[in-house]
From TrEMBL:
The keyword Disulfide bond applies. The keyword Acetylation does not apply. It holds the Pfam family Fibrinogen_C. Keywords: Disulfide bond. It comes from the Eukaryota. Residues 1-218 form the Fibrinogen C-terminal domain. The lineage of its organism: Eukaryota, Metazoa, Echinodermata, Eleutherozoa, Echinozoa. InterPro entries: Fibrinogen-like_C, Fibrinogen_a/b/g_C_1, Fibrinogen_a/b/g_C_dom, Fibrinogen_C-term_domain, Fibrinogen_CS. This is Fibrinogen C-terminal domain-containing protein. Gene3D superfamilies: Gamma Fibrinogen, chain A, domain 1 (3.90.215.10).
Length: 218
């Protein structure tokens, strides 16, 4: 099975950890968390819930992945590359804040390139969702389109120096940024160093929960 939609179509309709192997993968089969809500078949590649996992990690950690799929984790950029390049995928992001408001952002297409291109965010389609105000249309992530992935030890950013000092974790950093869901969990408010999503309704509240997941596009 190449992703969680294959798992779902095989009759496994419960959220949980399953083993998959993308059709173009050079890696052995690996475990993923499958979210079977909203039509089922979502392959989760990032989650933040309580700050117990450190996301300020080096290039190799983000390349290979860290954390546990049923808790806080990053699946790994190599795995994400194999997944998003075996077909056309859509992206859904769920966000929750400190006053229990819930928002989502969905993008019609999503793809990253391989390590030779620094895992560039190479495709991000039309936006739909509630994680926006002032009709910005998903700019929090679309602003970062065609940006290289960066970590503390691999600086591929085009940011001003003062913003480089504020950056935390691994992300597709650009300028001073409009999002970073791998930011520092400890902040009680959104800033350039914390978990942040530009122009989120109630943006003065701390983002407590994030989940990023993909599914084949219809």
């Amino acid at each position: 099975m190449g992703d969680c939609l294959d798992v779902f179509n095989a009759g496994f309709i419960t959220d949980g950890i399953y083993t998959i192997k993308p059709t173009n993968s050079k890696e052995p089969p690996f475990e993923v968390f499958c979210n079977m809500t909203d039509g089922g078949g979502w392959t989760v590649f990032q989650r933040r819930v309580d700050g117990l996992v450190d996301f300020d990690r080096n290039w190799t950690s983000y390349k290979e992945g860290f954390g546990k799929p049923n808790h806080e984790f990053w699946l790994g950029n190599d795995k994400l590359y194999y997944l998003t390049n075996q077909g056309n995928y859509q992206l859904r992001i769920d966000l929750g804040n400190s006053v229990r408001d819930h928002y989502f952002a969905q993008f019609q297409t999503f793809r990253i390139n391989d390590e030779s291109d620094n895992y560039r965010l190479s495709d991000l389609g039309a936006f739909d969702g509630t994680a926006v105000q002032y009709n910005e249309g998903g700019i929090a992530l679309s602003y970062h389109l065609n940006t290289f992935f960066s970590t503390s030890d691999r600086n591929n950013r085009e940011s001003p120096q003062d913003c480089l000092l504020e950056a935390y974790g691994g992300w597709w950093f650009k300028g001073c940024g409009k999002s970073n869901l791998n930011g520092d969990y400890r902040y009680s408010f959104q800033s350039t160093k914390s978990i942040n999503w530009f122009d989120l309704p109630g943006s003065w509240y701390k983002i407590m929960y994030t989940e990023m997941k993909i599914r084949p596009a219809v």
